[in-house]
């Protein structure tokens, strides 16, 4: 391949006023030259050098001003090896337009974040009433088990969420995650013993542990680059929304002591919506590429 040579041509147009300015500048350079010649016949060289420096400075500033006011950007022509002339237009980056196509799917994924916050906050208002209902009002140890069993399940779920997402895909993992979320909510709402309550809380904890791993993963992989940073903070926002929803759901407890069962049962609704919504959501492009690359390498 022949090496390409590029010739950049620029043209400067002078109007009548700029021509007059150029003549004045030329006279200034000529006057500077005459000062330099006179220095050869004088004995005081310092005075001559000072005068010549001042005149050169004025002339240089005038040239910069002249070119700054007259030079205009022109299209650059690039000459290739075969003598072809190609017009090179200046690069203008196109404005990126944020697409709202992914927003419904991000909203579906954020149901997992809402459930994360809801299960964390729902026990705060309901613990006193469920303890009386289950007969453990004086047993603080069992009450502690009911509270902390959610975090124990979340620890297990957080370790398995990533591997499940890589094996089954992001949307299928969401649908699998809805099973322990809904089952845990149902067991907690219908519990007649402490053991059933703890099992329900563990299942709900496994569900929120898995969702804590795959919700930000899925959102970041389906979001366009220009709004990826903004959508990345949506997960934390909806966790706070879930905690707030749990606190609001506990307001009727003062008038209805058995309302705590309804509070836990309400968590099954977002779980079902999560499973149904992920059936209509697209799979992560990154996971699809990983599957394609694995199949391609395995057939080589």
UniProtKB/TrEMBL annotation:
InterPro entries: MFS_dom, MFS_sugar_transport-like, MFS_Sugar_Transporters, MFS_trans_sf, Sugar/inositol_transpt, Sugar_transporter_CS. The keyword Transmembrane applies. It comes from the Eukaryota. It is a multi-pass membrane protein. The chain crosses the membrane at residues 101-121, 141-162, 198-219, 231-252, 258-280. Keywords: Membrane, Transmembrane, Transmembrane helix, Transport. It is found in: Membrane. GO terms for cellular component: membrane. Residues 105-300 form the Major facilitator superfamily (MFS) profile domain. The keyword Aminoacyl-tRNA synthetase does not apply. One of its GO terms (molecular function) is transmembrane transporter activity. Belongs to the major facilitator superfamily. Sugar transporter (TC 2.A.1.1) family. PANTHER family: PLASTIDIC GLUCOSE TRANSPORTER 4 (PTHR48022). This is Major facilitator superfamily (MFS) profile domain-containing protein. It comes from Citrus sinensis.
